[in-house]
Specification:
The chain contains 18 helices and twelve strands. By secondary structure, the chain is α/β, with parallel strands linked by helices. α1 packs antiparallel against α17, α1 packs parallel to α18 and α6 crosses α17. Bound molecules: D-fructuronic acid and zinc ion. The site of D-fructuronic acid has 7 residues, from loops.
């Protein structure tokens, strides 16, 4: 049941019935295309960096750790196996010998189900044949459709040799794939960066003298020109401080922030990762820790003319991040990162953000590494978003204000793409 009210001479259908309210939220969320603001997915033009299909999906680092916990295979042995053997082992351990209850394992079930493939199959024959038969460009379109995605942001590392070759060769990615300039190599390992810069005939001094700072700045300017990124980004440890006394601090202060300001590029901070807690697990070996939010607050306070996007890995930082965002209008919280991307936590975090920030945040990003991850990450997210919005609009109704379908569309569009577009500028499109 809906009530019609005439307000400012506009007819607005107010959703006063909870069943109808829920139905409208579901329809809007399930049909509003999203901009995925942080992924590790690349388009087919990026050759080997374009990852798709069942073997890539099963050798996702989330599933590798789960496999090594439930089989007798050692890390060393696992890394000596071919990718096909690794995928077979993951399949047997997590999907045949066990029930795929974890979020990452359920993700594979959702992907297989989306393509009509059997998640109870005793081996990967059928799935391999299916993915092997796909026309790649049609497959990419289909995945974007299935995930209801409009555009995505890649993670582009200017120190990655393969990637450098692609950009040097005039890479021209599918316009749905936006670049982002990832600065981990520069900011988290200055000694290594100095060596890699030297290999590119950019000689720098370890002490970060004035000439070196200019060279690093030129390096970033060059990459911005080549990649046309939508933002610059870095992942940071839980021990991150600002100000600090290390090379990272000087590089952020004297190179990155001026670059952000002059190119009008947002700076993305992903905080709380403890890299290589278990080095034997390689890419799967990172952990997490609770970070000091006052570092970000100081950065926002000292740089009111720079726009920051931030995500924190620890559950304990989520409430603080909301409070910081209330204090700094140049700070946009985004996504439920990595170990947080499980329904129990995404639902808690999203509710907390709605309560403290209204629609002024970017609720989710996928962090997908393999094309078809986009399907499960977004399909698992939408029911959580629907529940959270139903709770929030339902409470509003209880307080005496019903919303209209148009208002739901406005809010969902804002959170799905509008907030990001406002932050990074018109390079990305607006979802209406
Ligand atoms: O630093 C990052 O961008 C992280 O998201 C990744 O490095 C991490 O391995 C990941 O895939 C998390 O989802
Ligand atoms: Zn990531």
């Amino acid at each position: 049941m809906t009530t019609t009210l005439t307000r400012n001479q506009t007819e607005t259908e107010l959703l006063t019935d909870r069943v109808e309210l829920r139905r409208q939220i579901e329809t809007v969320v399930n049909t509003t295309p999203v901009i995925d603001v942080h992924t590790h997915v690349f388009p087919p033009e990026f050759d080997e960096m374009f990852r798709f299909g069942i073997d890539e999906l099963l050798t996702y680092h989330y599933l590798i750790v789960e496999t090594l916990r439930s089989s007798d295979v050692s890390c060393d042995h696992f890394w000596r196996m071919t990718r096909t053997e690794q995928a077979d082992l993951v399949w047997k351990s997590l999907f045949v010998d066990n029930t795929p209850l974890s979020e990452a394992a359920r993700g594979i079930v959702s992907i297989l189900d989306a393509f009509g493939l059997d998640s109870r199959a005793p081996n990967l024959r059928e799935a391999r044949a299916f993915f092997g038969d796909q026309n790649i460009s049609e497959h990419v379109d289909r995945v974007f459709d299935m995930a209801c995605l409009k555009e995505i942001v890649m993670t582009n590392d200017p120190f990655d040799e393969l990637e450098t070759q692609l950009w040097d060769g005039g890479a021209n990615p599918d316009p749905r794939f936006h670049a982002s300039l990832r600065l981990d190599g520069l900011l988290n390992d200055w000694e290594g960066a100095a060596r890699r810069l030297a290999c590119q005939d950019i000689s720098v001094d370890a002490g970060l003298g004035r000439v070196t700072l200019v060279k690093v700045r030129n390096f970033l300017d060059g990459w911005i020109e080549r990649m046309n990124p939508v933002y610059m980004a870095v992942s940071l440890p839980d021990s991150f401080r600002f100000p600090d006394t290390d090379a990272r601090d000087r590089l952020i202060r004297e190179v990155v922030l001026p670059t952000a300001r002059e190119h009008s590029l947002a700076f993305v901070l992903m905080v709380g990762v403890r890299r290589a807690v278990n080095p034997a697990l390689r890419i799967a070996g990172d952990g997490m820790g609770h970070a000091d939010m006052s570092a970000l607050e100081r950065m926002c306070a000292q740089n009111p003319d720079v726009r920051f996007l931030a995500t924190y890995l620890s559950r304990e930082n989520q409430h603080e991040l909301c409070v910081s965002a209330r204090k700094f209008s140049n700070l946009m919280p985004f996504g439920c990162w990595w170990f947080l991307n499980n329904p129990s936590l995404t639902s808690e975090i999203t509710m907390q953000r709605l309560e403290l920030l209204g629609p002024g945040f970017i609720p989710q990003h996928s962090d997908a590494r393999v094309l078809e991850h986009l399907i499960y990450k977004w399909r698992h997210w939408r029911p959580v978003f629907i529940e959270s919005l139903f709770e929030a609009y339902g409470r509003l109704l209880g307080s005496g204000r019903a919303v209209s379908r148009e208002e739901i569309i406005r809010d969902v569009s804002r959170m799905s793409s509008g907030n990001f577009r406002d932050w990074v500028g018109s390079q990305v499109s607006y979802t209406e």
